[in-house]
Every structure is written in structure tokens, then in C-alpha cells.
Amino acid sequence: MPPAAVPTTAVLPYEKNQNPSSTSEHSSNNSALKSAVAETSKAFPSSKWVKLNVGGKIFLTTIWTLVSKEPESMLARMFSQDGAMLPSNQDEQGAYLIDRSPHYFEPIINYLRHGQLIVDPNVSLEGVLEEAKFFGLECLVSQLESQIMQANQPLDNVPLTRRDVIKALIQTSHLTELRFQGVNLAGADLRKLDFRNINFKYACMQRCNLSHANLTYCCLERTDLAFANLECSQLVSVKGLCANMEGANLRGCNFEDPSGLRTNLEGVNLKGACLESSNMAGVNLRVANLKDANMKNCNLRAAVLAGADLERCNLSGSDLQEANLRGANLKDAELTLMVTPLHMSQAIR
After folding, report:
1. Which H or E element spans position 138?
2. What is the distance between the alpha carbons of residues 38 and 30, in angstroms, rounded to a whole number?
3. What is the pLDDT at residue 80?
4. Which of 19, 199, 283, 288 has the fewest CB atoms inside 10 Å of its own CB, making it the most exposed?
5. Average confidence score pLDDT of the chain
6. Ranges for the BTB domain (predicted)?
7. Of 191, 203, 188, which is closest to residue 230 (Cα–Cα)?
8. Closest CA to 108 of 90, 121, 120, 94
9. DSSP code of residue 95
């Protein structure tokens, strides 16, 4: 049986121009560095206040602020108890020197203090992002990237808010025509606002809250108002040719103009809409889609409903005196409790 191998220890040769004395000196330097790190870590209790000189501006904070929020960041490692990284040099006042922009560092130190990202309008988000990357603040980096992406989103894809609309109304003279043509107002809260004579042609107003708003003499031609809330709104003499109001709430609205001008809703899509108790006297609803609409107790005197699709429409309790229903589809429509009986002269199909 062969004898067991005797373990040997590999000895690395000295590098060229290296001698044992220089190796010994290198080891002593490492020991000194480790001792310095250990002494530094002892000098940084979490409650201690420190000064940071960032690009010439002094910031006063605590060790706890620097290490608690993001313990893996550069600032946390510089001042941590384990001494993972030596802090920078100090100026004559004892502040630790950091060669970065104070303009972008201020939002970062505030974030470390209270956990909220607050950036003044005059401060570039991109500049703060670069500083956050430099200091290794990963959670802050993701927040900033998200905000920058939202800020750079094309304006034509972002719906206007109530504040945006009110600002436009305030800044525009009543003698000047205000146009929101083609504007995205989807989901906006526009209740109780005065929109008289405003042009909303082609605008996207899906699911808008326009309850109790004044839309007198507005242009709503081909406007998308699907599932919008227009309860108790003033819609006197509006021009709503081919507008989409599918599923919209128009309960208690007023369409009648005392001067005799007709509201024009020719070709409008009111499928499944609620128009209960609305005043629609004289309204032009020629060839409109009113399938499954709720028109209970409506005033439809002298209204034009020629060619309209009123299939399964609830017209119970409505007043259709002198209304034009020639060619209208009233299949399965609810016609009970009519205020004025329909006459054959109205030529219902």
C-alpha cells in the first residue's frame, strides 16, 4: 500500500523588484488601515450629528438619517457601524467633503430624512436621478425613473383635469371663443361649471362628471360622452350631431330654448341612456339610436323622432304631443300612461 501523501503548502514567489521587507511594510499598512476603519466605526454612533460639505454647501444631519433608510447605499456604508467604507476627507470645519451638486443633493437628504420624494419645480428630476444612482439609492432611483416617465408622457395622451379646465376658463375672456375641440377630458370632474358657447367637437369626454353644468349653446358634434354623468345639466340649443352618449346619465336635463331654437341631436347614440324627467321639447332626434333608453316622464312635445330607433325604449308617462315619429321603430317600446295619446297622423311604424 503506497504511503499517504504529505500535504504541502504552496509558497508564492516574490514579484520582481519585491523583497521581504516591502511585503512586511505592505502588511503593516493593511493593519493600519483596518485599525483606522475600526476606530472610525467606533466614532459613528447612530445618534451623532455630522456635517456634510456637498459642493461647498453644508448639510447637517445625523448618522441615523444616512444609514437607516437605505443601508446598502454609499452614504450608509461611509458612516455605518461596521466601517464598510472610510468616509471622505474633512474640511477645516470638520465637514466631510463630497464633490457633488448641492442643488440635486438636497432632495436626496430630505428623502432620507422623511421617506418622501419632494422635488421643487425648478429642480431637474434627471439631475436628482444621477445623484441617486451615484449614491446607490436604489429605491429612490426607481421612484425617480417612474416620475420622469410620467413627466415625459406625450401631452396629447394625458386627460385634462378639473384644474386645467378651470384655469383655461379663468384666463379666457367671455368675448373670446374657447375651444376644447379634440381634447381628452376623459373622467374629468367638471360638475357645476359654466361651459356656455364652448366648442367640444370631437372631444373625448367619456365618464366625465358634468352634473349641473351649463352647456347652453355648446358644440358637442361627434363628442364622445359615453357613460358620462350629465344629470340636471343645461343643454339648451346644443349642437350634438352624431355625438356618442351611450349609457350616459341625462336625468332631469333641460334641452328647451325659450327663444324657439332647437337642440340638434340628429344621429346621436343614446343607447341605454337615462333621460328620465328631462325637458326635451322640440329636440331634433332624427335617426337617433334610443334602444333601451329610459325616457320615462319626458317632455317630448314637438320633438322630431323621425326614423329614430326606439326599440325597448321606456316612454311611459312621456308627453309626445305633436312629436314627429314618422318611420320610428317602436318595437317593444313602453308606451303606458302617456300624457297625450299617439295619433295615426304621427305615422308610427
Report:
1. helix 138-151
2. 12
3. 78
4. 19
5. 84
6. 48-152
7. 191
8. 120
9. P
